[in-house]
Design brief:
CATH superfamily of one domain: Ribokinase
Helix content: 25-40%
Strand content: 15-25%
Structural class: alpha/beta
Strand order of the largest sheet: 3-2-1-4-5-6
CATH class of one domain: Alpha Beta
Order of helices and strands: EHEEHEHEHEHHHEEEHH
Number of strands: 9
CATH architecture of one domain: 3-Layer(aba) Sandwich
Distance between the termini: 8 Å
Length: 276
């Protein structure tokens, strides 16, 4: 949906900062900007990280996260919110309370819970608070396969049939819709996601690209979807456009040379402007 620069939709990202620039707040701001919206941010943690990994995490005090939220919501017309890394149950509880207070039109939650190593980033009590307080407020949650398994207390899917078997349990989390991301099924030629709504589910197909530069894909996808929702697209169209955007950003990732490890996707790939 076209818009003039005078009424550019505003999207808030609530997440951690990635000093390497490939994930977290930095990826969110790039994705929101590249897809044609205005990005503002609330930082929940400061990480020391690069393409080789995370060396330190410094959580922001809850009171300061709250003051950041009050500052942006009291002045900016925030249409959509994307939530990423929330370090503990106290932060999750406060963010959910503020979402209920300010009631943005759209909420996308990327439940950042499982590290690449497979370790849980959130304690079990925090996961329970996330499920009880925040997920039921969401238009869309975007778990990858390990995160979905942690949310429902099940095994990590090994196939698309396994993904399908999770549908009913994921619906019971209470979000309006779930985008179950199949990127971890690395033996598949495609990287297919399952969009689960109240009465239907739809397999969204995409080609898998052979690249190690996929740092920040989850942050980027959820932010792009929030951006497209803010622009007035219906959920299914916003998810379709977001997946189209991340696929292109991954396909162009090797055009960048950033770091010695798992580099970022190319948020501003050639021809990216207003991909919708």
């Amino acid at each position: 949906m076209p818009h003039s620069q005078d009424n550019i939709p505003i999207v808030l990202t609530i997440a951690g900062s990635d000093s390497g620039g490939g994930a977290g707040i930095q990826a969110d701001i790039k994705a929101i900007s590249a897809t044609g919206s205005y990005a503002c941010s609330v930082i929940t943690a400061i990480t020391s990280q690069n393409t080789l990994g995370v060396s330190a995490i410094h959580p922001i005090p809850v009171a300061h996260i709250e003051s950041q939220l009050d500052a942006v919501f009291s002045d900016l017309n925030i249409v959509a919110v994307k939530v990423g890394m929330l370090a503990d149950s106290e932060i999750i509880d406060m963010v959910a309370r503020k979402i209920r207070q300010y009631q943005p039109k759209h909420l996308v939650v990327d439940p950042v819970m499982v590290a690449t190593s497979g370790d849980l980033l959130l304690k079990h009590r925090a996961i329970e608070v996330l499920k009880r307080e925040l997920l039921p407020l969401a238009d869309l949650i975007t778990p990858n396969l390990p995160e979905a398994a942690a949310l429902i207390g099940g095994q990590v899917p090994k196939s698309e049939d396994d993904m399908g078997a999770m549908i009913e349990q994921l619906r019971r989390l209470g979000a309006n819709a779930v985008l179950l991301k199949g990127g971890h099924l690395e033996s598949d030629d495609n990287s297919n996601d399952l969009l689960i709504e109240a009465k239907s589910s739809d397999l969204l197909r995409a080609r898998r690209f052979a690249t190690k530069n996929t740092h920040g894909t989850g942050c980027t996808l959820s932010s792009a979807i929030a951006s497209y929702l803010a622009q007035g697209n219906r959920l299914h169209k916003a998810v379709y456009l977001g997946k189209q955007y991340i696929s292109q950003a991954i396909s162009h990732a090797d055009e960048l040379t950033v770091g010695r490890g798992h580099g970022p996707v190319h948020h501003f790939f050639p021809g990216h402007i207003n991909v919708r």
